[in-house]
Amino acid sequence: MTEDEYLQGILRREQVDIGAYSPVLGCRTEVLPILQQWSNGYLVEVSPSGSFAKGTANRSGTDIDLFISLHENTPATLKEIYNTLHKRMQEAGYQPRRQNVSIGVKVRGYDVDLVPAKRQASRGEDHSLYRSKADTWTKTNVNEHIRIVSNCGRLDEIRVLKLWRNQKGLDFPSFYLELTTIEALRGCARGQLGRNVWRVFEYLRDRFTNARVQDPANTNNILSDELNGLEKQLIVNASKAALTAKTWGEIVR
After folding, report:
1. How remote is the C-alpha of 166 from its chain's centroid?
2. What does the DSSP assignment read for 199-244?
3. Looking at the DSSP assignment, which residues form a beta bridge with residue 118?
4. What are phi and psi of 150, to 5 degrees?
5. How far apart are the C-alpha atoms of 87 and 100, rounded to whole Å?
6. How many CB atoms lie within 10 A of CB 190?
7. Alpha helices of the chain — where are they, by DSSP H?
8. What is the pairing mode between strands 136-140 and 214-215?
9. CA geometry: angle at 158 spanning 111 and 178, to 5°?
10. Per-residue pLDDT tens for 95-109?
11. Are the CB atoms for 159 and 58 separated by under 8 Å?
């Protein structure tokens, strides 16, 4: 078995149904009435986002992100929106988890990240969302993120890197990982999955620590600032271990 055959086999095992009839989308149906009541009439839309919408999801990772778009005239602050969503999901019988920009819940056995955000204007796709780690807010454009990643031509490499991240227990935010993978493979040929994943490990070992990664939808949002020096060093160390592994089974399984 070649390295590409091994990795493609893992990706087939981890394939997620992202079609219109995906059972994961039933999670949106279940939580929608709760969100409508919580929003007091300011809900604009609840749509799949994150890895599910980009095509970079794995079966063993977070199953779906739901982006909650609220009207620009929503009177609550972003922090209040975040906190009241956590409280409402708790009242509804879930066990919500506070995450950086999302509230994590278990719905129908699936892991669901609820990402509340306030639309910045009646036209356009820019939103403001609360970042709980820094107790501040940031502007973002989730649809732009989806367009960039879903059209990058590196979905298989990203999915392998996400499996590696999860299996090694690394803190490496998904969009940060996706953009890093795209940059690491800039100019590299496609159709060489094993070789390209190896190149990403080399990039992480040699250049990751000092690489500045910004949100393409908001140049003031520096994604590389989401991790501190120690957290980045753990990623570098894991990359070095991957590059010295004797088999691919030691790297990702």
Report:
1. 12
2. HHHHHHHHTTTT---EETTEEEEEGGGGS-HHHHHHHHHHHHHHHT
3. 70, 128
4. -65, -25
5. 16
6. 11
7. 3-13, 26-38, 50-54, 78-91, 142-150, 155-167, 174-184, 193-206, 229-243
8. unpaired
9. 85
10. 999 998 999 999 988
11. yes
pLDDT digits (tens, 9 = 90+) for 124-147: 899 999 999 889 999 999 999 999
What is the three-class DSSP state of 246? Answer: coil
Specify the DSSP class assigned to residue 189: P
Question: For residues 55 and 39, what is the distance between their CA atoms, to the nearest angstrom?
Answer: 29
Task: Measure the CA angle with vertex 155, ends 150 and 157; round to 5°.
Answer: 155
The residue type at 164: W
- Other beta carbons within 10 angstroms of residue 60's beta carbon come to 13
pTM of the model: 0.88
Reading the block at residue 38, the tokens are: 């919580």
Q: Integer distance in angstroms from the first to the last C-alpha of the chain?
A: 14
From the number of C-beta atoms within 10 Å of its C-beta (0-12, 13-18, 19+), residue 26 rates as middle
Structure tokens at 158: 């990203």
Q: Tokens representing 73?
A: 């005239």
Cα dihedral: 145, 195, 167, 85 (round 10): 0
The answer to whether 148 and 180 have CB atoms below 8 angstroms apart is no
